[in-house]
Design a protein that fits this description.
The structure holds two protein chains of two kinds.
Chain A lengths: L6 E7 L3 H12 L4 E5 L12 E4 L2 E4 H6 L5 E2 L3 E7 L2 E6 L6 E8 L3 E3 L12 E3 H10 L8 E4 L3 H12 L6 E3 L13 H10 L8 H8 L2 H7 L8 E3 L2 E3 L3 E7 L6 E7 L5 E9 L2 E4 L3 E3 L2 H5 L4 E4 L4 E4 L12 E3 L9 H18 L5 H17 L8 H14 L9
Chain B lengths: L20 E6 L2 E6 L4 H7 L6 E2 L6 E2 L12 E4 L2 E5 L10 E3 L17
Parallel strand pairs in B: 1-7
Antiparallel strand pairs in B: 1-2, 3-4, 5-6, 5-7
Classes of the chains: A alpha/beta, B mainly beta.
């Protein structure tokens, strides 16, 4: 990015799957594009993701490698609107960068699991464990404890297991007022059971049994306290983590038994843990969109606050688009398709893409969603339909830039 | 130092790219890291968990989100304060310090806990 005289066709904030895919598509259509990310390495959460697919592995790092170079180490700390576009203020850059269109691809952030002791050094998010282990090859712990039954808990267990360093255990947090956003243990069990079809042989019949409250009350207290083998780790459904303990850093977790209704029972005990991984789940990062005045709404199935957008991801602010997890928490393949869709929409506005390309880009998002191995939140498609209906109801945007 | 030694079954494309080993400093102790990895990753591999103290109570704080969101891993890098250790790349000879907590703010009733 040079000087204030340059006006970009498209500025992209976020060099993750959505942002990089958008930049690649924008480049293919001849748009002057720049991608900003405060991290010094391009790829965002793409770098730390891998999962088995028929015949091998899907590797995010390889997906990222094929995409364009980005402006790195430049966090956009402010942005405002001007006639016909936007001004972005990036760290270490004296002058604002001007762009006619702005794509916000800021992704998602992790929900906290604020148990007592959660702020001790050695307590990190599940995503942080992915970054340490999958991106940088650093061992997270010899006896790591994963707290929470969100999809991220199982993803990180799978990935660490594949690297030969599985976490010791996965268990839900004990219920408490500060953890209401995570749902009761019963709600978390349900969440874990939703993923059972991806699990080992015992998981599917196990899930069917636990779906009935009566069977759950009969069976859960009889399961071993040490849990069931899963991905080289132990899935411990009938104990809950009440606190992280340690003096200057995490040294262990305090546990309670859970009864068949998810209530802690009996005396607590402490087990050693040299790392505690909090898997509270994900929510979209809406800050930049909200700050620029985009109309927002909260949709539980999408993970929280999201912009009201048209079928391309255009917000109510002329020229402002969103893609990826900023639109709702889903997998990287959907995010990449959403990034391309936004770039093609911008290209179409500038006369660089036709209606057929636009229709194809929209259809690719639906295809990626249908092909996803699992949904982060049940009912994600319904969530997007609700946003689309709201866009219609509110009469869409106020027109488009340029 | 705990670096993962990947089993042969781990997909080759997912392995971290090779980087040269460099030496950097955290407070007055020397550590080794892989060039370009975040300071926080190199320190975690070296067993360092405590990266600073919270202004409010003086309790230790460390890496939490590892992607720049939470600002819990703030350190001083050379003469630049409040750098996020999770984003700051390791370089040969880099000097990183735990930050001294700033003095409590002079607030009145309903102000700072300190």
């Amino acid at each position: 990015v040079s000087g204030t005289e340059t006006i970009l066709d498209l500025a992209v904030v976020g060099a993750g799957p959505a942002g990089l895919a958008a930049a690649a598509a924008a480049g293919e259509h001849g748009l002057a594009t720049a991608v900003f990310d405060e991290a010094p390495v391009a790829g965002g959460r793409l770098l730390g993701q891998l999962h088995p697919v028929p015949g091998g592995w899907w590797v995010g790092r390889a997906e990222a490698a094929g995409l364009v170079a980005a402006v790195l180490g430049a966090g956009v700390y402010a942005a405002d609107r001007e006639e016909g576009g936007f001004r972005l203020y990036a760290s270490d850059s004296p002058a604002p960068v001007r762009a006619r269109h702005l794509l916000v691809a800021t992704g998602a952030t992790e929900l906290p699991v604020p148990l007592p002791g959660w702020n001790l050094p050695g307590v990190i998010t599940a995503g942080a464990a992915q970054t340490l282990a999958n991106v940088w090859g650093v061992e997270v712990g010899r006896h790591a404890f994963v707290v929470g039954l969100s999809p991220l808990a199982f993803a990180v267990a799978l990935e660490l297991g594949a690297a030969g360093v599985p976490p010791a255990a996965i268990a839900p947090p004990a219920p408490g007022p500060a953890l209401a956003h995570l749902g009761s243990p019963v709600a978390q069990w349900r969440e874990a059971l939703r993923l059972a079809r991806l699990g080992p042989a015992w998981a599917r019949p196990g899930a069917a049994l636990l779906a009935s409250p009566a069977l759950r009350r009969a069976l859960l207290p009889r399961l071993p306290r040490s849990g069931l083998p899963l991905l080289g780790s132990r899935l411990r459904l009938n104990v809950a983590v009440e606190a992280v303990v340690g003096r200057e850093k995490a040294e262990g977790v305090r546990l309670r038994r859970l009864d068949g209704d998810g209530r802690p029972v009996g005396p607590p005990w402490v087990e050693a843990a040299d790392a505690v991984l909090m898997a509270g789940g994900l929510r979209p990062v809406p800050d930049l969109l909200r700050a620029l005045g985009a109309r927002m709404t909260t949709v539980e199935e999408l993970g929280g606050e999201v912009p009201v957008v048209d079928p391309d991801g255009a917000t109510s602010v002329p020229g402002l688009y969103a893609a990826g997890n900023a639109l709702g928490v889903e997998g990287a393949a959907v995010a990449m398709a959403q990034g391309r869709r936004a770039a093609v929409a911008v290209a179409a506005r500038l006369g660089r893409a036709d209606g057929r390309a636009q229709a194809e880009a929209r259809a690719a998002v639906e295809r990626a969603r249908a092909d996803a191995p699992f949904a982060f939140h049940a009912g994600v498609a319904e969530g997007h339909r609700r946003v689309a209906a709201l866009w219609q109801e509110l009469g869409g945007g106020d027109g488009h830039a340029v | 130092v705990s670096r993962i030694v990947h089993p042969p079954s781990y997909p080759a494309a997912a392995r971290p790219p090779r980087a040269r080993t460099v030496r950097f400093w955290f407070d007055d102790q020397a550590y080794e890291g892989m060039e370009g990895e975040p300071v926080a990753a190199a320190l975690w591999a070296a067993g360092v968990r405590d990266l600073g103290r919270t202004e409010a109570t003086g309790a230790p704080r460390g890496l939490y989100c590892a992607i720049g969101h939470c600002f819990e891993c703030r350190v001083r890098v050379g003469d630049r304060p409040d750098r996020r250790a999770c984003l700051e790349p390791v370089r040969e000879g880099l000097r990183v310090y735990r930050q001294a907590p700033p003095p409590p703010l002079p607030l009145g009733d309903g102000g700072t806990p300190k």
